[in-house]
Amino acid sequence: MKRKVRLNELLQPLEAAAPPTTAEAAPSPPLPTVAPERRAASGAVRAMGLDLERLATEARRAQELERQTQSGELVVELEPAQIDPSFAHDRMARTDDADYRRLVDSIQAHGQQVPILVRPHPADAARYQVAYGHRRLAAVAEIGRRIRAVVRPLSDVDLVIAQGKENAERRNLTFIERAFFAADLEARGFDRTTLNTALAAHPTEMVRYLAVARSIPRWLAEAIGPAPKAGRPRWKELAALLEVSGVPDSLRVLVERPDFRAAPSDRRFERALAAIRAPRLRPDAQTYLDREGRVVARLEPLATSTRLTVLETAKPGLSAFLADRLPQLIVEFEEGASDAV
Q: What percentage of the chain carries pLDDT values higher than 90?
C-alpha cells in the first residue's frame, strides 16, 4: 500500500511552495545526486513492443494500399482466371484478327506495357470485372502470365463510360459494334445520357445505332463480323432490306458455308448484302451460286415459259458465255430427245 501512495505522489503535480521564512532564507547544502536505477526490460516486454511496432507499420501500409486502390493509383498483378469480362459486350472480334495476333507477339516479346482497368466484382468478392483491356487480358492469358491491372471501385455507369472512352481512344469500334454496344446498354436499362457519353455520340447518331441494331439479327451481325470498311450507309441499307423482306433462306444457308466463314469480315458483308439485295423468287425458282457463294443466275418458271436471269454484276461475261453455248445445248437436247423416242 505504501508503494501505491508513493507512486501517486510522484505522478501528482507539485504544489506551490509557501514563501520561505527568514530562517529558511539561507540556502541549504545541495543533496547528493543519485543516478536513476536502470531497469532492463524483460524479454516478453521487448517482444511485445516489437510486435506493436510491426502491427502499426502493417496498418499504415494497408491504409496506403487502400488509398491507392481507391484512387486508382495502384497497379497489381492478378491471375487472368480471377477476372470476368464486362457485362457490356462491345467488340465482335476480340481474338481472331491480325491485330490481336500482333498484340500477343508484342506482349510475349516486351511484356504488358499498359495495365487494364478492373473493378471488384459486384457479385463475388474474390473476383474482378474488366472495364477495359479485354484483348490484353486474353493475350496475357494465352501466354500464361499474370495480368497487370489497375483496380478501381466503379459503378455500372462508370464502367461503361470508361469502357467506351478507352475504345474511342485506342481502337475505335466499327459502326455495327457501336450499334450493338449501344443496344446492349439500352437493354440493361441505361439512359440515353449514359449511352451518348459512353459512345461519345450525338443523340441523332444514337438513334441510328439503335435502329440498325433492332433491324439486324444479332446472329447475322456476328456471322458477318465488324466489317470495318462497310460504314454506316451500307449497314443502314442492310437493315432497311431486312425490315422490308426479312431474312431470306438463301442468306441463312450462305452464312453457314465454310468459305463464307473463312472470308474476311468485309467480304462477308458484301456477300450477305448481295444475297439480300437479290429479288424475291417463286418457291420453285432455282438459284445458282459460284464457288465463292455469290448468286450468279436464277431460273424461274413462269406460266408458259421459264425465265433465266444472269447477274452480270456478280459474274461479268457469264451471259455471253451462255449465249455462245446455247445453240450447242439445243442440239444436244434435241439429240437426246430423239434417242429417247
A: 35
Q: From CA 127, how far away is CA 145, in angstroms rounded?
A: 17
pLDDT digits (tens, 9 = 90+) for 325-335: 999 989 888 88
Class of the CATH domain delimited by 173-277: mainly alpha
The Cα–Cα gap between 196 and 205 comes to 9
CB atoms closer than 10 angstroms to residue 185? 26
pLDDT tens across 123-138, in order?
998 999 999 888 899 9
| Number of other CB atoms surrounding residue 85 within 10 Å | 13
CA distance 184 to 32: 90
Range 68-170: architecture per CATH = Alpha-Beta Complex (3.90)
Is residue 140 within 8 Å of 146, Cβ to Cβ?
yes
Model pLDDT, residue 68: 52
- 149, three cell numbers: 491491372
Here the cell at position 141 is 492469358
Give how far the C-alpha of residue 170 lies from the chain's centroid of Cα atoms, to the nearest Å.
12
Count CB-CB contacts under 10 A for residue 112: 21
pLDDT, averaged across the chain: 79
Largest Cα span, the chain = 165
List phi, psi (to 5°) of 114.
-115, 120
Long-range Cβ pairs for the range 104-112 (8 Å, 24+): 104/139, 104/142, 104/143, 107/136, 107/139, 107/140, 107/143, 107/145, 108/143, 112/136, 112/140, 112/145, 112/147, 112/148
Q: Say how far residue 223 (Cα) sits from the centre of its chain.
A: 19
Q: Which pLDDT belongs to residue 17?
A: 44
And the C-alpha cell for 137? 487480358
Tell me how far apart the alpha carbons of residues 299 and 278 are, in angstroms, rounded to a whole number.
Answer: 13
Read off the pLDDT band of 186 (50, 70, 90). very high
What local confidence, expressed as pLDDT, does residue 21 receive? 47
Grid cell in block for residue 38: 536502470
